[in-house]
């Protein structure tokens, strides 16, 4: 590929002209140079003095960055995204001149853009009198910029840079932390304001030259924030969450996560690839197990229906004479059927299998528990579960159970609203041993229930008998299933379980099986999540090893669909890297589909927001062939990001073969593996990840060289992996972005490549 050539001019002098209230610069004694960009560097062609060379390189880089910024539709204030990462030879004054003279920014905005682009290096910029000889306007503005920085009292901090924060990222309690700001002049004093829920402290900062610093010990585990008091203003985070800007006192500060000392997460889980199965829809044994289970439920007075074949569509409408849809249609998936599919999972490289609820329940989703102790008879029996765990373990696969502990089913042993279980439940009798589990406002029919659903009565998690049965006792439900072979628990609606109860569950599970994994269903940032009026401690080392990373899903799909750019995705990924405790960050359940959201393939191919459609429209939804082909391409990009980002990639059953579906229940269609779709692509991804120490445990750097390209560099001893995701319509040339010595190739449009670096 030919090198990019820019023409850069120097001048002997200039005149200022004002027209219609705007300043125009007229240059004279023009001299032109050609400057080439190749293998990541600008270089003048032909003869140039050393001083001219420095200026020409700077001017070419600034001009090219402005052109790219404008072409991509970004405001000039985002110019920093388009400047080369290595800015040691760039002259800030040339950017200052371009922004003011060529772009027309006011001096305030231009100064802010220069500070954001060059940060602390501005405090040590040398004077450049030599500039006057061939670019006097830049020389004049170089002095003006220097004066502005001295008089404005500006300062700079970057929370992700060890020069300003040591250590970076989340820290254990008691860790000694040093925070610094660099001033550009005019700053006489600075103070650190650190705060959190019920915590606030102001610390004076010590000055050494142009740097203010403070050292302190991290307090008790908490999600904290900090900002710097600079004169009458505060230094707060900019939009990326880590660089700084001056702001008023009301703005939120930089984040600082402090977690419990000694917090660890299970290594085997962290290093695995995960697969989620909706049990009724994945493995079919065709041995009469499901049919016998259907009859069991009918004898209880329930109304299960068995589909004639897996080709039938899922049920979504009420039966005749019923008001609401009842999710009690079954396709006959069994635990034996899942066991038979273990070799299929092994081929995909799976090391952790997460099962949606398998315990006895009335519905096909089984989040309305009837009995915590029994396998639902449609799926089989306890012996089938034990055998599944044994056979999975032989293949190196651990089983994660779904724990639905915040509520039970109304039709259950514990509540027994319909008398199906012999009248022993709380609804049937005040003398029931389960009566204290539930909160009745008016006995027996007015009771607290999950989100108002009468079929899901909520439990009182502080009730001692409930805690003994579910958590504390030697034969508690938490311990019982671990003893039967489970490798951990996914805790349904973790928001509904108090922090102390979550901690009890984790402690009880670890006492039974120290290397088990405890995963919470948390849909937001788990570090700062507030629910029921207070901030939760999910991520601080007390209660969870991992959470379902729905923010990751949203960010990746938004990027793939073109709704956000690579800069925003990079900032999101960096935010999780720096704000989650490292033990949890490496264990995050990085999903792109689940039983609660529309399927990945459909979300990528649809030209609408699927969850905004009514249920009839979702039932009728189909991708056109063109949309499906587009979704195939975009799904490869998403999967590459998923498998190369730290954490545990989780594949929802059937996504590897591009199974489609909108929201519940259409995202829960039955699945029969065929080896089509992207199956082989995922097999390849599994082999790459499982054979790479860098991808399983290595350090990570995220880059966004253009709005359409994300790069992920993973490094461990003797293993370095570079993943390049090109969402754009143009070829991306790696040789231009710092990897010329190792890679000299291009990444085609709308594609992802994973390279092993030497």
- Average residue-wise pLDDT: 95
> Largest sheet, if any?
8 strands, parallel
The number of helices is 20
Shape: elongated
N- and C-termini, Cα separation: 24 Å
Q: How many β strands by DSSP?
A: 39
For this structure, the quaternary state is single chain
In terms of per-residue confidence, which ranges show pLDDT below 50 for 5 or more consecutive residues? none
What does this structure look like?
It contains 20 helices and 39 strands. Helix 11 packs parallel to helix 12 (499-512) and helix 18 packs parallel to helix 19. It is elongated. The protein is of the alpha+beta class and 758 residues long.
Question: Descriptors for this entry?
Answer:
758 residues; alpha+beta; eight-stranded parallel beta sheet; 24% strand
Would you kindly provide a brief summary of this structure?
With 758 residues, the chain is an alpha+beta fold.
């Amino acid at each position: 590929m030919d090198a990019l050539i820019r023409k850069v001019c120097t001048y002997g002098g200039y005149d200022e002209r004002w027209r219609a209230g705007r300043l125009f610069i007229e240059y004279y004694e023009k001299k032109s140079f050609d400057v080439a960009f190749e293998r990541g560097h600008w270089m003048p062609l032909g003869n140039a003095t050393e001083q001219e060379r420095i200026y020409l390189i700077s001017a070419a880089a600034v001009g090219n960055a402005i052109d790219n910024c404008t072409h991509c539709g970004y405001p000039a204030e985002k110019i920093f995204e388009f400047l080369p990462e290595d800015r040691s030879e760039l002259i800030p004054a040339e950017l200052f001149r371009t922004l003011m003279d060529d772009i027309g920014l006011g001096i305030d905005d231009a100064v802010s853009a220069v500070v954001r682009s060059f940060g602390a290096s501005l405090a040590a910029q040398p004077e450049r009198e030599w500039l006057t000889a061939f670019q006097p306007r830049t020389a004049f503005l170089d002095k003006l910029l220097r004066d502005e920085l001295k008089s404005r009292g500006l300062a700079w901090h970057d929370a992700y840079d060890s020069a300003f924060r040591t250590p970076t990222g989340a820290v254990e309690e008691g860790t000694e932390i040093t925070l610094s700001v660099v001033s550009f002049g005019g700053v006489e004093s600075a103070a650190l304001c650190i705060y959190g829920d019920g915590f606030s402290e102001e610390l004076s900062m010590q000055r050494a030259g142009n740097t203010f610093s403070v050292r302190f010990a991290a307090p008790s585990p908490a999600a904290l924030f900090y900002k710097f008091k600079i004169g009458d203003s505060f230094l707060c985070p900019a939009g990326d969450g880590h660089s700084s800007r001056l702001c008023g006192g009301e703005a939120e500060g930089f984040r600082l996560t402090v977690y419990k000392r000694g917090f660890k997460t299970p290594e085997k889980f962290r290093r695995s690839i995960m697969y989620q199965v909706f049990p009724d829809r994945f493995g079919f044994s065709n041995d009469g197990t499901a049919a016998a289970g259907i009859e069991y439920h009918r004898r209880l007075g329930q109304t299960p229906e068995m589909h004639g074949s897996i080709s039938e569509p899922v049920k979504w409408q009420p039966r005749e004479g019923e008001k609401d849809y009842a999710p009690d249609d079954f396709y006959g998936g069994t635990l034996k059927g899942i066991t038979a599919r273990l070799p299929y999972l092994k081929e995909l490289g799976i090391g952790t299998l997460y099962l949606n609820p398998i315990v006895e329940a009335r519905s096909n989703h089984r989040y309305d528990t009837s009995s915590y102790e029994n396998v639902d008879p449609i799926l089989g029996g306890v012996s089938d579960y034990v055998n599944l765990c044994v056979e999975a373990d032989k293949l190196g696969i651990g089983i994660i159970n779904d724990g639905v502990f915040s509520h039970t089913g109304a039709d259950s042993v514990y509540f027994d609203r319909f008398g199906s279980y012999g009248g022993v439940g709380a609804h049937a009798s005040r003398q029931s041993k389960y009566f204290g589990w539930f909160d009745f406002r008016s006995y027996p029919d007015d009771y607290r229930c999950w989100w108002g659903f009468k079929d899901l009565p909520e439990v009182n998690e502080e009730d001692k008998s409930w805690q003994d049965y579910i958590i504390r006792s030697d034969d508690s439900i938490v311990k019982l299933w671990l003893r039967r072979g489970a490798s951990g628990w996914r805790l349904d609606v973790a928001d509904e379980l108090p922090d102390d109860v979550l901690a009890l569950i984790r402690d009880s599970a670890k006492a039974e099986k120290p290397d088990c994994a405890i995963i919470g269903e948390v849909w937001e940032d788990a570090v700062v999540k507030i629910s029921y009026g207070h901030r939760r401690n999910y991520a601080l080392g007390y209660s969870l090893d991992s959470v379902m990373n729905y923010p990751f899903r949203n960010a990746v799909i938004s990027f793939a669909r073109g709704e956000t750019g690579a800069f925003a995705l990079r900032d999101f990924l960096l935010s999780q890297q720096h704000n989650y405790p490292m033990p949890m960050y490496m264990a995050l359940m990085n999903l792109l589909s689940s039983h609660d959201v529309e399927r990945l393939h459909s979300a990528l191919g649809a030209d609408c927001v699927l969850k905004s459609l009514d249920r009839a429209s979702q039932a009728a939804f189909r991708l056109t062939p063109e949309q499906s082909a587009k979704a195939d391409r975009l799904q490869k990009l998403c999967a590459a990001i998923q498998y190369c980002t730290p954490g545990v990639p989780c594949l929802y059953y059937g996504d590897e073969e591009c199974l489609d579906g909108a929201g519940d229940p259409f995202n829960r269609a039955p699945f029969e593996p065929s080896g089509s779709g992207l199956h082989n692509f995922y097999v390849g991804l599994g082999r790459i990840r499982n054979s790479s120490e860098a991808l399983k445990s290595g350090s990570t750097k995220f880059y966004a060289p253009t709005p359409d390209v994300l790069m992920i560099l993973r490094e461990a001893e003797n293993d370095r992996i570079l993943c390049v995701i090109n969402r754009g319509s143009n070829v991306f040339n790696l040789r231009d972005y710092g990897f010329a010595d190792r890679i000299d190739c291009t990444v085609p449009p709308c594609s992802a490549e994973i390279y092993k670096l030497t």
